[in-house]
Design brief:
Layout (H helix, E strand, L loop, with lengths): L1 H6 L8 E3 L10 E4 L2 E5 H9 L6 E6 L2 E6 L14
Antiparallel strand pairs: 1-2, 2-3, 4-5
C-alpha cells in the first residue's frame, strides 16, 4: 500500500524523532521511520521540499531544526522522549 501511495504522488506521514545528540541535548541527527541517524540539515531540507507534511522547521540561534506541526498530541512530538 505504501508503494502505491508514493507512486500516486501522495505524501505519507512519517514519524520524526530527535536523537538529542548535540550539545545541550540539541538534535544534530534524527530517526525518520526506518532511517536512523539522519543529519539535521538533510531533515530540514526534506521538510522544506514538502516530504514531511506533518512537520515544519524553526530557526534557533541561527540553526534550523525539525518540529512537528502543533496538535493536541504529545506522543508524536520530535522530542517526545526528552
Amino acid at each position: 500500500m505504501a508503494k502505491l501511495a508514493f507512486s500516486l504522488g501522495r505524501k505519507l506521514m512519517t514519524k520524526i524523532r530527535g536523537r538529542n545528540d548535540g550539545p545541550g541535548g540539541r538534535n544534530e541527527h534524527y530517526d525518520i521511520g526506518s532511517r536512523t541517524n539522519v543529519p539535521r540539515r538533510n531533515v530540514v531540507a526534506e521538510i522544506k521540499r514538502g516530504e514531511h507534511p506533518g512537520a515544519h522547521t524553526v530557526r534557533i540561534n541561527g540553526r534550523e531544526y525539525a518540529r512537528d506541526n502543533p496538535d493536541s498530541s504529545t506522543k508524536d512530538n520530535v522530542n517526545r522522549d526528552k
